[in-house]
Design goal:
Rossmann fold, five-stranded parallel β-sheet, four-stranded mixed β-sheet, 9 strands, 46% helix
Length: 209
């Protein structure tokens, strides 16, 4: 298997409430041969979240043991809870030719880019701060003080948008999904990958007279 046979790695980041998780879930349903990497976290599950589907929910002790064993390709602490992405999980899928999407924050994205410089990074922003606040309130998961902290953090996170390859405004959800899908498809069709994948066809076409 050559490098161009490997799966693509996509980084999708956004401020809390930016809608990246919903966009990624929809993307996975719309395309074949692409999976989202499931992160480990020490925070408690939210309503409707499932173990092994949304996250792997672990204790602080378990998480720190994994950190000490270098089990994570990236990890960060957000609002007092730890989040990390398993090295083994990503490498196994990429080697199988499966595209992998990482739903992480900008700090995690920074770590990933150092290890996978060819990863495609996408940043999601809300259309306005007012919309972002409304989305956070609608979730009914945080008190006013936490929402205030999330809003402050969101502005700091959004200041890192220029570090990414693509920028999507999550205003109309369906349009944002299509934009995200277009990026994935375009990357699959780049010359480096198509040249290898279609080697026999290209050889025949160029040799024909």
């Amino acid at each position: 298997m050559t490098n161009t046979d490997l799966g693509n790695l996509f980084i999708v980041a956004a401020p809390s409430g930016g809608g990246k998780t919903s966009l990624v879930k929809k993307l996975i349903k719309r395309l074949d041969c692409i999976q989202v990497a499931i992160s480990h976290t020490t925070r408690p599950p939210r309503p409707c979240e499932k173990e092994g589907v949304d996250y792997f929910f672990v204790s602080d002790e378990c998480f720190l043991n994994m950190v000490n064993k270098n089990a994570f390709i990236e990890h960060a602490t957000v609002f007092g809870h730890h989040y990390g992405t398993s090295v083994e999980q990503i490498n196994a899928r990429l080697k199988a030719g499966i595209d992998v999407v990482l739903d992480i924050d900008w700090q995690g994205a920074e770590q990933i880019r150092r290890i996978f410089p060819r990863a495609v990074s996408i940043f999601i922003i809300p259309p306005s701060l007012k919309t972002l606040r409304e989305r956070l309130l609608k979730r009914r998961q945080d008190n006013n003080e936490i929402i205030k902290q999330r809003m402050q953090r969101a502005q700091d996170e959004m200041s890192h948008y220029a570090e990414f390859d693509y920028l999507i405004v999550n205003d109309v959800f369906a349009r944002a999904v299509e934009n995200l899908r277009a990026i994935v498809i375009a990357n699959r069709l780049c010359i480096a990958r198509q040249k290898n994948k279609l080697a026999k066809s290209l050889s025949f076409l160029l040799a024909s007279k």
